[in-house]
């Protein structure tokens, strides 16, 4: 009698394993959520050469936390002696405006502008017609480059 039951028990166990495996794979497939792609950050810039003012506007992407940002400003390919840092006045006249100012909200939202004025002792200075490039980094990773003519 045991011989007649063994194939039946084997088939039942094999079917149960197949169902269990199918349920596990299905649950994993439905639970999978692909990561969201990184948003593209688009920033525009303007330079007022006579006033040494730089204005940046977040056109798309964000919001960005300015505490995680750093800038590198180049004038005709040469880096400024002292690089502006959001929230700092080092190398600048006064404090930056917008979210780069420590007294304002540290979130840089879409269509919001930030600005800063370069100090006279922070060469090179943009002259009319010179190329100004601003490289923006988030946690030391490049997220945008703005190139404009003064």
Defining traits:
about 150 residues; alpha+beta; Immunoglobulin-like; 2 domains; four-stranded antiparallel beta sheet; three-stranded antiparallel beta sheet; 1 helix; 9 strands; about 35% strand; rod-shaped
In CATH, what is the class of the largest domain? Answer: Mainly Beta
Report strand %: 25-35%
CATH architecture of the largest domain: Sandwich
Average residue-wise pLDDT: 86
What would the principal axes of the Cα set say about the shape?
Answer: rod-shaped
- Strand neighbour order, sheet with most strands: 5-4-8-9
Percent helix range: 10-25%
Number of domains: 2
- The fold-level CATH name of the largest domain is Immunoglobulin-like
As a whole number of angstroms, the C-alpha radius of gyration is 29 Å
The number of helical segments is 1
Total strands: the figure is 9
| Largest β-sheet summary | 4 strands, antiparallel
Task: Write the H/E string, N to C.
Answer: HEEEEEEEEE
Low-confidence region ranges: none
State the secondary-structure class.
alpha+beta
Distance between the termini: 96 Å
Question: What's the SSE blueprint?
Answer:
Elements: H1 2-31, E1 42-48, E2 53-60, E3 64-65, E4 69-75, E5 78-79, E6 107-108, E7 113-117, E8 131-138, E9 141-149
What does this structure look like?
This protein has one helix spanning 2-31, and strands at 42-48, 53-60, 64-65, 69-75, 78-79, 107-108, 113-117, 131-138, 141-149. The strands form 3 sheets. Strands 5-4-8-9 form a 4-stranded antiparallel beta sheet, with no helix packed on it. The protein has a 3-stranded antiparallel beta sheet with strand order 1-2-7, with no helix packed on it. 20% of the residues lie in helices and 33% in strands. It is rod-shaped, with a radius of gyration of 29 Å. The protein is α+β, with helices and mostly antiparallel strands and 150 residues long. It contains 1 helix and 9 strands. The N and C termini lie far apart (96 Å). The chain has 2 domains: 1-33; 42-149, Sandwich (Immunoglobulin-like). Strand 4 and strand 5 (78-79) form a beta hairpin.
């Amino acid at each position: 009698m045991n011989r007649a039951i063994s194939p039946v028990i084997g088939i039942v166990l094999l079917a149960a394993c197949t169902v269990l495996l199918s349920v596990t794979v299905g649950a994993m497939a439905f639970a999978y959520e692909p990561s969201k792609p990184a948003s593209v950050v688009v920033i525009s810039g303007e330079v007022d050469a006579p006033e040494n003012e730089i204005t940046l506007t977040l056109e798309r992407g964000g919001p960005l936390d300015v505490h995680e940002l750093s800038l590198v400003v180049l004038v005709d390919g040469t880096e400024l002696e002292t690089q502006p840092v959001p929230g700092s006045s080092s190398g600048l006249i006064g404090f930056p405006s917008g979210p780069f100012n420590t007294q304002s909200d540290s979130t840089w939202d879409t269509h919001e502008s930030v600005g800063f004025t370069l100090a006279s002792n922070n060469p090179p200075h943009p002259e009319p017609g010179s190329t100004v490039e601003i490289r923006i980094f988030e946690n030391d990773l490049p997220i945008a480059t703005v190139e404009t003519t003064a």
